[in-house]
Amino acid sequence: MTQVVDNIENSFNNFADNLVQYRADSRQVAPVILPAEQVSLFTASLPIRGLRARRAALPFALEERISAPLGDVHVALCRGLDEGNKVLAAVVDLKIMEALTGRDTGPVWPETFALPSPQAPEGHVAWAVWRRGDRALVRLSDGTGFVTDQAMLPLIWDLANKPPVTAYGDALPAEIDVGSHFAIPSKPDPKDLAVDLRQGQFAQASTNWSHPLKRVAALCAIALVGHFGIAAADAVALTNIAERERATAQAAIDPILAGVTLTGDITPIMRRLAPAAQPEIGSAFLPLLARVSTSLSEVKDQVGFRRMTFSDNPARLTFLIETPTLDALQQAERLLRAQGLDVRSGAATAAAGVAEAEFVVSSETSQ
Known about the structure:
The chain is α+β, with helices and mostly antiparallel strands. Helix content is 32%, strand content 25%. The protein has 11 helices and 15 strands. The strands form 4 sheets. The protein has a 5-stranded mixed sheet. Strands 11, 12, 13, 14 and 15 form a 5-stranded antiparallel sheet that branches.
């Protein structure tokens, strides 16, 4: 059991070192690296403009794909992708982020960012796999990724319809067709390294960090011992080969789809490995949000959001809107009504060059 845990921690440190070294080369403060098992990466389509609006809408766009209540997780907007309105998002257990509260440190990155996303033809998926010992870090061409035991790679690769693979580090299992193999990957993608998972309530008030790189090892090890200790104890206890393979497969799937039991039905797994998961057909949230965003984009002054909530039956979007003037608030309301939307506005206030009011917007057909 001790040997298994050591192997896992050594491979994590190896992947994390690649991120830390890149940060050190740029003479910036050391980051906090979260193990890939603790961060789920998703792609989502957000047909709206503005950073604040996108961050406010993102949890609702992912709600049906997260196997936990929104109140138990922290959802961070990573960056935009090359395909239209698609973005890369990260979901972390709220307790993990709370454990970092008060630490005067650099940005928080998922370990997956140590491996740049591979290139793939439009409409297809490619994998980059970096193996160290029994642990393999996988990055998909859509920016998402996961970590798994190297013994499970052939099964997961086969379930993903055998995408092309670029390999790094130790050799991959013979069952996987490897297009090319290199000792180590190139430097992390600068677009990934511009991300900080400390957003919203966890955003740092100051960027004047001064702690040395030596603290990285302690920060990276949060929750590792407990997480891997249980998995290692289970692996050692299994003596039946068939049961051992099933348990290993389940352990590999858990970081991707927590709570999904591995069975003969591979549909949930294939949905997770798909390059671009689309919002559920018939969902009222994104269409309504798109109409609101289109209307407000025509306001002559800058428009901002301070908060946003959504409720069903009927579909209703409530948000606190900010503009420089009261006239801009009135223009925003007129433009929303011109879109055929039902608008109810609260009392408007203006102070220090900022006017704000709460709007409740719904489709007239939903009333």
